[in-house]
Design brief:
Elements: E1 2-6, E2 12-16, E3 28-32, E4 41-45, E5 57-62, H1 69-80, H2 82-87, E6 90-96, H3 100-109, E7 119-121, H4 126-131, E8 143-148, E9 154-160, H5 168-180
Length: 191
């Protein structure tokens, strides 16, 4: 999908947005991978997000800004249900345009004891830009959620305005429906 935006300076900005049916781009990014002081920072690769050989799905969720109330509520909520994703053989990964050091300070401020999913740093906004999720006025990443099949194909994408939090139960509901391979009615629940 190509989006053409007219900037305040009358330049036309062409932007490509990743969408359903496309593959998530390959990447290697610094990430907060643990709250253990000896293992905090590592590298996270797109190959860890999904795996055809292991039939592993992936959920990649983005938040706009560390240390903000709506984002904090989502970080805590995803942490509380992280095991539900693991039970579904699904890698859960968070990302923002802020640094690993910001992520670590934030987790400590939230008094998190463990880190149940990696938090990717995209300080140069290269991945967010490739995905087409940069809010042009602020330069922040939108609150975006991707469900990625084992093949690397984006099967579901949801993008919220910066101020509107997402529903983690809905992410699980859609993941269940996609993994079942069956048609699912409106508001279906697992089973």
């Amino acid at each position: 999908v190509h989006i053409y935006l007219l900037t305040p300076f009358n330049f036309i900005y062409k932007h490509t947005m990743s969408t359903l049916g496309q593959h998530i781009p390959s990447f290697d990014k610094r990430a907060l991978v643990s709250l253990d002081e000896t293992k905090e920072i590592g590298t996270f690769s797109s190959s860890e997000l999904h795996s055809e050989a292991e039939s592993r799905w992936g959920v990649l969720f983005w938040w706009p800004k560390d240390h903000t109330a709506v984002c904090e509520s989502e970080i805590v909520e995803f942490a509380s249900i992280a095991e539900s994703f693991h039970e579904r053989n699904t890698a859960l990964v968070g990302a923002s345009i802020f640094s690993v050091e910001d992520h670590l300070k934030w987790c400590k401020n939230l008094k998190m004891q463990t880190l149940p999913y990696p938090m990717i740093e995209d300080t140069d906004s290269s991945l967010a830009d490739t995905l087409g999720i940069i809010h042009q006025a602020s330069g922040l990443a939108y609150r975006a959620t991707y469900i990625i099949a084992p093949t690397g194909e984006v099967k579901w994408l949801s993008i919220n305005e910066l101020a509107v939090g997402r529903n983690t139960d809905e992410v699980l509901r859609v993941l269940d429906a996609l993994q079942s391979g069956d048609f699912k009615m409106c508001n279906c629940k697992n089973g």
